[in-house]
Structures are given as structure tokens and as C-alpha cells.
Specification:
By secondary structure, the chain is α+β, with helices and mostly antiparallel strands. 26% of the residues lie in helices and 33% in strands. The chain has seven helices and 16 strands.
């Protein structure tokens, strides 16, 4: 079963890191989330170490950056995701920097090595001159083994500056032969936008077995008492090797397969307010495909060819890198990346 953001708990939080107090705040927030999730004391202590090391590395090597902290669940297993983002000088030799004892800053050199040892999942992507993105996930107990039918997701879903509530929302559910996901952008921002986007995602959960067009039709009806939302629904079917998509409003979506980019079609409109046409499209999907869906809080001029090797990294790093470099900064933003679990 794919991992997903835990329902009912506070969602992702972003911290700006520029001095040692940022490392202390990262540790405090991460430990609080770990305790809310019910992680053991030992697991929580590991979270504290990983959070501190990642934030401290930002200060040492990039001078400033961002930490994104969010809860996860894999089936019934809770976990915590930490993303470290910077636009610093980048890392010339990533494997060397992950060895214990190596340091380019005159320290003991235990930072990334400790993170790799303690994290259940770890990934990193760095380009000299563009910066570095680091992912660490820590889970409570052991995860059930993944299957080749699983899709793994990466998400950044954060409010516009000055807002405490994100007016975007997203959801994804597993199906017998794949998965279905939605990105919803409530009209405007703030609490009322969050209500509209949340109702759209609730509709997805209630009607996940229906087609994308039927889900969008249901959401259009369910959102009539709200301010409305732009939304997009994608269903991935492994055995058929297809992705079915329906979009309404300004949600962008692309499938990238072996360097080939396909832009998915949406129609103008706002669920709950106006939908002159709701239509579904079918696209090819393979184990090499990558799906990216984002709200208009992200600029559309990005090109993953500018980030060598990024498409091979964990979807969380893909979503986070796009957020770091292309967030407009004047609206809520959601970026979701998804691809098949790799067993190679």
C-alpha cells in the first residue's frame, strides 16, 4: 500500500533555516510530530538526531535553506518525512559526503552518515551550482513489503506566506490494480478555500472506484455549497498500462517517460461553480513513467532535463525540488509526483 499523509493530524510544515536557532526549531517540531504519531521513545530520539543533522548541514554548507516536516502513514504504520532543501553550492561527490568522518566544513563529519544509518528511507539529489535536496523518512516499527503493483508518491502541499491553512488539498487511494489520486485547489486561499479543496478530496475517497470523469462530476455537485475548486483526478492501472485523467480548471499535469513529456488535458471551469465540459482522457503508462500534478501555485516553465538524474530519485525529492525552484510565493502550492515502485 502506498504511503500517504495522515488524516486528522497537522500537515506539512515549512521552516526557514538560517542560523542555529533553526536547527533547534526543526528538532522541536519534528519531535512533537513524532510523539503525536505515537513513535516510540527510541524512534523519536532517532527523529531528533536526523532533524538536527539535516538542519545543521543546511547552515554549515548552504548558509540557509528550508526544512519541510510532514506525517505519513503506510497502511496502519505511521511515520515522519523530513525534506531538507537549499540553493547552495551543491555536492561534488555525494557518496563521499555520506561517509562517516568526511567533512568539508571542519566538523566531525557524522551528519549525513548518521542520517543514512537512522532513517528508514534516505535519498539525496544535488547539482553543483543549483543546490541539494535530501529526503529522510522514519517509520514506527517495520513496514510491510511493497509489491510491484504499488505506486510511490512524493508531495509538497503548503500554504501561501502569511496563511496557516493551505487552500489546496490532495488525496490518493489504492485500487486492486493500481491507484487513484486527486489534487484540488480551492478558489482563493485561506480556510474557505481549504473547505472546498477538502470536500473534493472527501469525494474522491467516497467514490474511488468510479472513473475520473465520474469522480469530477460527483465533486462538482458536492462543492456547490462551497466557493469551488479546480481539481484533477488520475487513475493508474498497472495491468492495462494506462493512466486515465480528468481535469477541471487550472491544475497542470504531465507524464514523463524515458525523457518524453506528455501534457495532460484539462477543461476550463471550477468544480461547484461552472463545468461546461467534463471529459476523461487515456494515456499510456509504464514502469518507467513519472506523473507530476501541481496547482497553479507552481510555475509551469520547469523542465526536469535541467536536473540530471532527478527523475530516478524518490518522488518526494522530485516534488520538493520543483517546489524549491518554482513556487510562485503568492498562493498555496501543491506538487505531487508519483511513479511505480522500483525493484531493480
Amino acid at each position: 500500500m502506498a504511503e500517504q499523509l495522515i488524516r486528522g493530524l497537522r500537515q506539512q510544515q515549512k521552516l526557514e533555516i538560517g542560523d542555529p536557532s533553526g536547527a533547534a526549531e526543526t528538532r522541536r517540531v519534528s519531535v512533537n510530530v513524532a510523539r503525536e504519531l505515537g513513535l516510540s521513545e527510541t524512534e523519536t530520539s532517532h527523529v531528533a538526531i536526523v532533524a538536527t543533522e539535516l538542519a545543521t548541514n543546511l547552515i554549515k554548507h548552504a548558509k540557509q535553506g528550508q526544512m519541510i516536516i510532514g506525517p505519513l502513514t503506510h497502511g496502519e504504520t505511521p511515520g515522519l518525512e523530513l525534506l531538507s532543501l537549499d540553493r547552495g553550492p551543491g555536492i561534488a561527490n555525494v557518496p563521499l559526503c555520506m561517509r562517516d568522518g568526511y567533512s568539508s566544513a571542519g566538523s566531525l563529519g557524522t551528519g549525513l552518515g548518521a542520517v543514512v544509518r537512522l532513517a528508514s528511507e534516505f535519498d539525496i539529489h544535488s547539482i553543483q551550482g543549483k543546490g541539494t535536496a535530501v529526503l529522510a523518512r522514519l517509520w514506527a516499527g517495520k513496514l510491510k513489503p511493497l509489491s510491484e503493483a504499488d505506486i510511490t508518491f512524493g508531495i509538497c502541499c503548503l500554504p501561501m506566506p502569511g496563511e496557516e491553512v493551505c487552500g489546496d488539498s490532495l488525496g490518493y487511494e489504492m485500487l486492486a490494480d493500481g491507484s487513484v489520486c486527486m489534487v484540488a485547489d480551492g478558489l482563493g486561499h485561506g480556510p474557505e478555500a481549504a473547505v472546498a479543496a477538502g470536500e473534493a478530496v472527501s469525494t474522491l475517497r467516497r467514490h474511488k472506484m468510479q472513473t475520473p470523469a465520474e469522480i469530477v462530476e460527483r465533486a462538482h455537485g458536492a462543492l456547490r455549497s462551497t466557493r469551488g475548486a479546480a481539481l484533477a483526478v488520475a487513475q493508474i492501472y498497472h495491468s492495462q498500462q494506462v493512466l486515465r485523467f480528468c481535469g477541471l480548471g487550472n491544475i497542470a499535469a504531465r507524464i514523463i517517460t524515458n525523457g518524453t513529456v506528455r501534457h495532460l488535458t484539462s477543461y476550463n471551469g471550477t468544480a461547484g461553480l461552472e463545468a461546461r465540459r467534463i471529459a476523461e482522457f487515456t494515456y499510456p503508462w509504464s514502469e518507467q513513467s513519472l506523473l507530476i500534478v501541481h496547482s497553479d501555485g507552481l510555475m509551469t516553465r520547469w523542465d526536469l532535463n535541467d536536473y540530471p538524474g532527478l527523475t530516478q530519485r524518490h518522488p518526494s525529492l522530485i516534488a520538493a525540488t520543483l517546489y524549491r525552484d518554482f513556487c510562485r510565493g503568492r498562493d498555496d502550492v501543491t506538487v505531487m509526483a508519483a511513479k511505480a515502485v522500483s525493484f531493480s
